[in-house]
Structures are given as structure tokens and as C-alpha cells.
Fold this protein.
Amino acid sequence: MSPDLDTAVIVCLAALGAFAFVDGVLVHLVRERLHRRPETRLEHVIHTGRAAVFPPILLLFFAGRAPALGVALLVVDQVLEIADMAIERRSRAYSGGLRTSEYLLHGSALTLRGAAIAFSLAAGAPSAAVVSFVDLLLPGTVLGAILHVVLLVPIRRAATA
């Protein structure tokens, strides 16, 4: 892989990771509390699926451990992304739909993901720098996936007398 393509992949993945944290944790879980609302439950399930496939995509596709399987997981992720877009208007009806800032986050994340994939495909086998960067990203992405799974379990509140 050439240094320019290495840098492009790393920059795209770094920015994607930052955008995913802002959107997936700060917006979806903290501000909107999608996991706590019955009307957004399916949206949270879809987000959980996407969070769960991202660490293997990093490892298999971007780090080159099993590129064909990584591509298959990219297809799964794309299907989940389309499902998410298909239900978001209905899911967020309680708040009048997505805010403009969230649409901008989603569009930017899609662009970064597509660019990272394109740069990786153009480069061929990943370099040691890209593999090392993926290794840095993995713990955070795994924790994000675990958090989404844990939040699938409804919280039962004690009845107050």
C-alpha cells in the first residue's frame, strides 16, 4: 500500500470513528435515549446490529485478515443502514423526525465509510500502519457494541408507593 493511500484510509477511519461515537453514543443513547423508548426500539436493535458488525469489519476487511468475509459483513452493514433509513422517519415521529445535524452526521459518516472502503480496495493489501490503526480502534468499537447489546435489556424500575 502506498503511504498516501495508507494515510487516506487511516484519516477516513479516524473521522468515521469520531462521527460514529458522536452519533451512536452521544446522540442516540445519551440525548435521544433510543433504547428507552418503545417507538424507537427497532431503531436501537438495528443500531446494535451495526455496532456489532463494525469490529469484525475493521479486523476482517480493513486489517485484511479475511477480506472476502469482510466484504460480506460490509454488505450486511449496508442492508442494516438501509433498514435504519427506512424506519427513522416513523421511529422519530415523537420529536418531529431527525434533526438537521443528525442528517449531516449520517451523510458524513456514509461518505467516510465509502471513502475508506474505496481507498482500501485501491491500495490492495493493508500496510502495517493501517493494521496498527485498526488495532487501536478495535477496543472502542467492541465496547460500543457491548454497550448497545447491554442496552437491549429493558431496565425495570421499582414501583414507587
User: Anything to note?
Assistant: The chain has one domain: 3-150. Residues 3-31 form the longest helix (29 residues). The chain has a mean pLDDT of 94.
